[in-house]
Amino acid sequence: MTNPNYFELFGLPTSFTIDNDALATRYRDLQKMVHPDKFADAPERERRLAMEKATLINSAFQTLKQPIHRAQYLLELQGIALNNENDTFMDGQFLMAQMELRETLAEIKTQADPLTALSKFLATLQQQTQQLLDKLNQHCTKADWHAARNSVRQLQFFNRLQEEAIQLEETLL
């Protein structure tokens, strides 16, 4: 069984911008159709197929729900891989900005009010992430997959940095 296009599965256009409410509604509808209770008395094969379909629906929903995963999936549909370990080239200016952000994060622990500093840092990070998501949307709309790929890779950096900031927040609380 080949996996269908996730966008088609949910009846959505293949696009970076999606209607999240429609996604959630369609997810609930699809899950109802393959709920295990509906197949409790069904033959083993039908129960297994329903479980496989439910797993596919869950995976598709998680992919489409998160902008970075949705963008990665769009690139995958275009035959563009992101996980090539030999592909480490990044824009020098972006890398310098990342190093500065990491230094700022590392210095937060030593500040007089680290929680306030961290809150400001996270707000700045969120703003930059949103700007990058807007750029990514433009690239996908124009089908500029090379630029979209670069934006996704940059988003991956921001996501890791945000995870590190949240871990720091947990240690400060």
Automatic annotation (TrEMBL):
<dbReference type="GO" id="GO:0044571">
    <property type="term" value="P:[2Fe-2S] cluster assembly"/>
</dbReference>
<dbReference type="InterPro" id="IPR004640">
    <property type="entry name" value="HscB"/>
</dbReference>
<dbReference type="GO" id="GO:0001671">
    <property type="term" value="F:ATPase activator activity"/>
</dbReference>
<protein>
    <recommendedName>
        <fullName>Co-chaperone protein HscB homolog</fullName>
    </recommendedName>
</protein>
<dbReference type="InterPro" id="IPR009073">
    <property type="entry name" value="HscB_oligo_C"/>
</dbReference>
<dbReference type="Pfam" id="PF00226">
    <property type="entry name" value="DnaJ"/>
</dbReference>
<feature type="domain" description="J">
    <location>
        <begin position="5"/>
        <end position="77"/>
    </location>
</feature>
<dbReference type="InterPro" id="IPR036869">
    <property type="entry name" value="J_dom_sf"/>
</dbReference>
<dbReference type="InterPro" id="IPR001623">
    <property type="entry name" value="DnaJ_domain"/>
</dbReference>
<comment type="similarity">
    <text>Belongs to the HscB family.</text>
</comment>
<dbReference type="GO" id="GO:1990230">
    <property type="term" value="C:iron-sulfur cluster transfer complex"/>
</dbReference>
<dbReference type="InterPro" id="IPR036386">
    <property type="entry name" value="HscB_C_sf"/>
</dbReference>
<dbReference type="GO" id="GO:0051259">
    <property type="term" value="P:protein complex oligomerization"/>
</dbReference>
<dbReference type="Pfam" id="PF07743">
    <property type="entry name" value="HSCB_C"/>
</dbReference>
<dbReference type="GO" id="GO:0006457">
    <property type="term" value="P:protein folding"/>
</dbReference>
<dbReference type="GO" id="GO:0051087">
    <property type="term" value="F:protein-folding chaperone binding"/>
</dbReference>
<comment type="function">
    <text>Co-chaperone involved in the maturation of iron-sulfur cluster-containing proteins. Seems to help targeting proteins to be folded toward HscA.</text>
</comment>
<comment type="subunit">
    <text>Interacts with HscA and stimulates its ATPase activity.</text>
</comment>
<keyword id="KW-0143">Chaperone</keyword>
